[in-house]
Design goal:
It comes from Tsukamurella conjunctivitidis. This is Maleylpyruvate isomerase family mycothiol-dependent enzyme. The chain is of the alpha+beta class. The protein folds into 2 domains: 150 residues, Four Helix Bundle (Hemerythrin (Met), subunit A), CATH 1.20.120.450; 102 residues, 2-Layer Sandwich (Nonspecific Lipid-transfer Protein, Chain A). The protein is built from 10 helices and 10 strands. The protein has a 6-stranded mixed β-sheet with strand order 2-8-7-6-9-10, covered by helices on one side. Strands 1-3 form a two-stranded antiparallel ribbon. A two-stranded antiparallel ribbon has the order 4-5. β4 and β5 form a beta hairpin. α2 packs across α4, α4 packs antiparallel against α6 and α4 runs parallel beside α7.
Length: 307
């Protein structure tokens, strides 16, 4: 674990052991993400005054801008969808039309905005509010406004500022990352429905998405549902060839451990970060990446989490 990560006091989480899974090539960025997002953890006060703490704060500001730029760019791509395409089906989200995907993504933006506006001490449980969605083609301009309102709210907050989310008390960076991933994946879903197909996810966005999946989404679901005995103790390694990132996961009955040491893998996935992220989100088949070892281990985990 890096010096920056060692300056962290972690809150107890029953479903996952948090460690830094990231390779040296991108360790600074992901150390910052680890510090600021893991289930409402806080930095040790003496460490925050050190040179390391100053470097961390600088990179936090850079990371915030990357998140916001990504939300804006993918939001603009959604808003630019041709109105004639709104009725097309979305293959990666059965039952949806493109219009449904636009409305869903707007609802997620409204949800995040409501949590952030309410503050860290709010106990209210919000639901996505899309009651004002207009009919017809106007949904695209409406979505653009909802996306802009989310960005305005996110700009008001520092990444390590206390906040609340559906997981409980956390920090504003949680929502910056969560909305980056939400709009990125659904932008891909909607573009993939169009004749021209979808652009790949940006490499850094996809790598950050895999980190979120392995540190929050998958552990949260596995912690609630559990894993079959046949999967317990199995090791999955994920290697992004374009970013140099590596994630090593050991499966438990009630969660996963994200390991920072190298251990033998039962199955290894290797490919571009975008391709890996899309496989883990069940948007594409595992055959789109290089897979070595026992595929049933990966399939078994994904069948449980069904993200």
């Amino acid at each position: 674990m890096s010096a920056a990560s060692a300056a962290v006091v972690a809150a107890t989480a029953a479903t996952v052991t948090f460690r830094n899974p990231i390779s040296p090539q991108s360790s600074i960025l992901h150390d910052v993400l680890e510090i600021n997002i893991e289930w409402g953890i806080g930095r040790d006060e003496s460490a925050s005054r050190s040179a390391t703490g100053l470097r961390v704060r600088r990179v936090v500001a850079m990371t915030k801008q990357l998140w916001l730029d990504s939300i804006a760019a993918d939001g603009a791509r959604i808003a630019a969808i041709a109105p004639a395409s709104l009725g097309l089906p979305v293959p990666s989200c059965p039952g949806w039309t493109v219009r449904d995907g636009v409305v869903h993504t707007a609802g997620a933006h409204r949800w995040a905005t409501a949590f952030l506006q309410a503050g860290a001490d709010s106990k209210e449980r919000f639901v996505p509010d899309v009651s004002d969605v207009p009919d017809g083609d106007a949904v695209l301009q409406w979505y653009a406004g909802v996306n802009a309102a989310l960005l305005d709210e996110l700009r008001r907050h520092e990444p390590d500022e206390p906040a609340r989310a559906f997981i409980g008390r956390t920090v504003a960076a949680f929502w910056m990352r969560r909305m980056t991933q939400e709009v990125s994946i659904h932008r891909w879903d909607l573009q993939n429905s169009l004749p021209g197909g979808a652009e790949a996810l940006p490499a850094w966005t996809a790598a950050d998405g895999i980190t979120e999946l392995t540190q929050m989404q998958i552990p949260l679901i596995v912690g609630k549902k559990g894993l079959p005995d046949a999967l317990v103790g199995k090791v999955i390694v994920i290697e992004a060839t374009d970013t140099g990132d590596r994630w090593t996961l050991r499966l438990r009955a009630d969660g996963i451990d994200v390991l920072d040491e190298s251990v033998p893998a039962d199955v290894t996935l290797r490919g571009a970060a975008s391709d890996l992220d899309l496989v883990l989100w069940r948007r594409t088949e595992p055959g789109t990446v290089d897979l070595v070892g026992d595929r049933t281990v990966l399939d078994g985990l994904l069948d449980v989490v069904i993200i």
